[in-house]
Amino acid sequence: MERKPKAKRISRRKFLSTGAGVAVGAVTGASLLKSGAMAASHAPVIPATRRTPAAAMGGLKQFPGVTVNSIFVSGEHDDTLLRERIGDVKNQLGINLTVSDLGAGAMHDKIAEGLRSGHSPYDVSTIVGFWLAEMVGPGNFEPLEPYLKNPELTPADFDFADFVPKHLDYISYWNLQEHRNGRPGQLFLLPGPHSDAHMVVYRKDLFDKYNISAPPKTWDEYVQVAKKLHHPADGIYGTAFVAANDPSISLSEWGNRYVSMGGKFYSGSLRDKTVVPHLDSPESVAAIENMVELLDYSPPGVTSYALTNVADAMSAGKIGIMMIWVTIGGRAWAPSLSKVADKVAAAVPPGNGVTIRGGWGMGIPKDVKNKEAAWAVIRYYSTKEADKARVMNYGTAAVRTSTFKDPDVVKAYPYYPTFGKLLENATPYPSIPFPESWELVMEPSKSWNLAMAKQLKPKEACQQAQAAAQEILKKGGWSKSA
Amino acid sequence: MATERAATTGVPPRVASRFWRHLDNNPWVFVLPVTVYLLALSIYPLVYSFVLSLKEYHVDTRSFSWVGLGNYAAIFQNPEFYTVFRNTAIFTVATVAIELVLGMALALFMTRRMVGKSLLRTVLIIPMMTTPMVVGLMWRFLFSTDFGIIDYLLRILFRIPPVNWLGSTPFSLISLIITDIWQWTPFAFLILYAGLQTVPDELLEAARVDGARAVQVFRHIIVPLLLPMITVVILFRGMDSFRAFDTVYTLTFGGPGRTSGTLSFLAYLEGFAYSHLGLASAMSYVMVAVIILGVTVYRFAVMQRIVR
Questions:
Q1: Under DSSP, is residue A181 helix (H, G, I), strand (E, B) or coil?
Q2: How far apart are CA A143 and CA B165, in angstroms?
Q3: Is B136 on the interface with A (CB under 8 A)?
Q4: What number is the ipTM of this complex?
Q5: The model scores a pTM over 0.80
Q6: What's the CA gap between A160 and A279, in Å, rounded?
Q7: What distance in Å separates residue A417's CA from the closest CA in chain B?
Q8: In this complex, do B59 and A138 lie within 8 Å of one another by their Cβ atoms?
Q9: Residues 168 to 207 of B: which have CB under 8 A from any A CB?
Q10: pLDDT digits (tens, 9 = 90+) for B7-39
C-alpha cells in the first residue's frame, strides 16, 4: 500500500515569524490606504469666508509647477492658516507650496546658515525684528518695491497703505546706508504673519473669586495679585512666565519690565562706536528681582517654561495671570484652543505703558531662484482677508489697520482696541541695530535663567549679563572705549 | 599579458589596447576613487576647517579676517569653556560607565534560556534605532513637571514632590545622562552579547566543575576574554558621549545657564547661532585634541595590558 507522504510541517518559529510579517504588512498596508483615503477625503476644504476671492487673483501671473518653500516660527500659529491653504495656493497660483515651522532658535540658525552659504533653503523666509541687522543689513534680501509695483504680480486692491505704519517701520524697511530699520529705507520684508506688543491676560472669574478689584498697575502689585491667585491645592498657580534658558526670558520678561521701569539698554553713539550697555542698572536688577519673586507663585517646572508653555498653562486654566505677546496670548480667547475662552480679560502691562514691540516680516533671500513665485506667496498671505482669518481663527496679532477696526475681530477679541494703543506706544527691543543682536539676546538670557534657578543673585546675574554684553559690543567694534 | 587577458575575457589579443595594458600596470588607478573620496570629503574639510579656526567671520560684511591663534586663546580665556568641559567630562564618564555595566548585565541575562528571547532582544535595541532629536523630545515630555509620567510615578509610588528635571542643577545634567543611558545601553549590550557568544562553553564548565562561583567565573574568565569588546564599547561610547549635542539641544538647551551644556553644544551656539565660525572651528579642534589624548592614554594604560 502506498503511504501518503507526510504533510510538510511548519516549525513554530517559522509560523510565528511568518505570522508577524503578515500582520505587520497588513497593518502597514491598511494604514497607508487609510491615510491615502483620508488625505483624499480630508483635502483642505476652505470655507467660503476664508477663500481668497478669485477676482483678487485674476489677471495675475501664474507659476505652474514651481515649488516655493516657506518657513515660519512654530508655536505662534503663523504657519497654520497657510498650511491649510496649500491646496488653494496650488489652485490660485499653480505653486507647489511647502510650509515648515521651527523653533525660533533653530529657525534663526537655519536661515543664517543659508544666507552665509548663499544657498537659502527657504524662498519665503520670515524674519523677526532683532534679526534685521544680521540678516537684512548685509544686503541678503531682495528689495520688494519692484514686486509691489508690478501689476502682473500685485493686484490693484492689495492696499499696501493698510498695513500698520509703525509695524512697517519696525519690520519692513531697512536703511542699508544708515544701518537702521524704518523709513526712509528700502522695503525688504512684508508685514505678517503678525505684529506684536505685550499684554497682561488674567482670569476674570478668579479675580472675582479672590476679590481682586483691578489688574495690577505696578510690578509689585503684579506679585501681590499672583500671590492672591496662587492656590496649587486647587490646581491653580498664581502666574507663569518664561524662566527657561530661552531668548524670550530676555525679550518678553526682562525686556518688558526693564523698559516699563524706565531702563535704558545702552547709551552712547552707534555712529561713533561708543556704545555702553546698562544691563547692570538698578532697573535691570529690579526687573530680575521681580521675576525671582514670582517663582514662588508659579508652577514647579517654570524654570523650563518657554512662551508656549506659559500660554498653554493659561489656556488649560492652570494659572491666574500672565504677561505675554498678544499673538500668543490671544489663543486664550479662541474657543477651539482654550478651556477658559469666556473667562479671560486683557490689560495693559504694569509700569509706564511702554512694552516691547515684536512681529515678523516675510522676505525673499537674494540667492533663491523663484523670486516672483515667492513674492506671489507672500502677497497671498498678506491680504486683508488672510490677516483677518489668522486673527479670527487663532487669535494672532493683526498687521493691517482694517483688521484692528473690524467689528467681527473686536467682538471675538475685545482687547483689540487696547492692543491697538499698545502697538502705537510699543518700543523695539533695543539690540535691533546690532548685527550681534541675537547674541545680545541669548547671552543675557543665560544669566537671567541662572537667577531664576537661584544659582545667581539678581545683582550677580545682571553683572554677568553686563559683562557679556560689553564683550559682545567690544568684539563687534561698537565700544571703542571698552 | 594580452594572451592571458584573451584567455580570461575571451577578447582577442588584438583588441587589448595600450590603454588597458597601462591600466593593468598602474595600481594607482584602483586607489583613485577612494583617494578622491578621502580628499573631497575628509582631507579638504579638515584643512578648510583648520584654516577657518585661524580666522574670524564678520556678519555685517560677510567676510573673514585673520586672527591666528586668537580663537584658541579666546577659548581658554573663557570661563564658560571650563564649565562645559567639566559637564562634558562628567556626562561622558557617567554614561560610559553605566552603559557598560547595564549592557554587561543585559548581555549576561540574555545568555539564559527563556521564552521570547528573540523578541526581547529586538525590543532592547529599539532605543538605539531612534533619532536622537526624537529621543530628546520624547524625554522632554517624560521629564515634564506638569504632565510627565516620571514625576507622576515618583509622587504616586514614593510620595516625592515634583522634581524640576529640566530646569534645575544638577537634575538637568542627570536627565541628560538618563536619556543617553536609555538610548545607548543597547549598543553596549549588542557588542558584549556578541562577545559572550565567543566565550568557549568548555572553559565555563571546567570552572564550574572546579567549584568556581558565578562571581569568580565572571571575574576571572568572562571579563578577561571580553576585554577587547569592553574596549570597543568604552572607546566608541566615550567618543560619542564626548560629542553629545542632540539631546542637550532638545532637552535642556544647556540650562540652567550652561550647567548642562556640552562642548559640542557650545561649539554649535558659537558657530551657528552667533556666526563665530572661526571660534566654533577652533573649539572643534580642541575637542579633537582632547579625544586623541584620551584615546592615547587609554591605549597605553589599558590596551597594553590586554595585549600582555
A1: strand
A2: 47
A3: no
A4: 0.83
A5: yes
A6: 38
A7: 34
A8: yes
A9: 168-169
A10: 555 555 555 567 666 666 677 778 888 999 999
